[in-house]
Amino acid sequence: MADLKFSFAETFLCSAFAACFAEFFTIPLDTAKVRLQLQKKAVGDDVTLPKYRGLLGTMATIAKEEGLSALWKGIIAGLHRQCIYGGLRIGLYEPVKTLLVGSDYVGDIPLYQKIIAALLTGALAIAVANPTDLVKVRLQAEGKFPVGVARRYYGTLDAYYTIVRQEGFRALWTGLGPNIARNAIVNAAELASYDQVKQTIMKIPGFSDNVLTHLLAGLGAAKKPVLNLYLELSTTGYAEPVCHLVQTSKLLWIGTVKSRMMGDSGYKNTLDCFIKTLKNEGILAFYKGFLPNFSRLGSWNAVMFLTLEQARKAFRGELYYD
């Protein structure tokens, strides 16, 4: 990822821009995921059908009841999140990776060092950005309000203020535990995989540091079919661990617990949320929103990494269109 040498500030700005760009275009999928994750099974009522059903059904219901723009609820908080989280996790990745192997290291950095670096930067970045994630989920969770019922929040800034006023400053870090676990794993899956897949692709005759390589590596950071191609091409011996690591991003239950803790302040802690969800709704409840999450993961990575590489080239006046 670091063919050109960039300062932390330069990488942070390019990463924040690319993450925000990807966030804007994929947040409807994320909104559908959050609504599905927060939808609880009716207790003692087997007749009532769930309001949201499937990816397309959920998006259609939201658009019909609340308007098409409702699919972009929480976008301002989402952009806040990506400026902080996206900028820090990618901006710190290269410095941390260099710190782990030493500044005098020569050659390809081992995959396990890349994984460790991405785990650390993902955990640190989301620890700082957790308040933005909380507000984003709260705003995405708000559906159509009955007539006469006041809204909980009247915008992003009001949400920050209201949460602090009603629940205390510490409430902004609600769900921090599962959020760190989820984003550390996802960051390792995305950054380490992208780094390794791009490195491998560029060793293949005919491939260079261009848009096609960035697109394939971006898809490879999230999608197993591309990683299967990578398995066939790789001679490093590290391809299988990468594939296994990316598969851990399917641990959607962590995201479900995180979303429920952020969307519902009635849980005491992570374990309480996990036990109540398991007891009331069964194990499958943890995998609600799988399809929108899977769809967003691939599209978000492709858009973000492609935009990031082009933004870095443009930053140095070396933008190309091959």
Automatic annotation (TrEMBL):
Which is a Gene Ontology cellular component entry for this protein? Answer: mitochondrial inner membrane
Q: Which Pfam families match?
A: Mito_carr
Protein localization: Mitochondrion inner membrane
Superkingdom of the source species: Eukaryota
Sorted alphabetically, the keyword list is: Membrane, Mitochondrion, Mitochondrion inner membrane, Repeat, Stress response, Transmembrane, Transmembrane helix, Transport
Which family, according to UniProt? Belongs to the mitochondrial carrier (TC 2.A.29) family.
Official protein name in the record: Mitochondrial brown fat uncoupling protein
Taxonomy, top ranks, is: Eukaryota, Viridiplantae, Streptophyta, Embryophyta, Tracheophyta
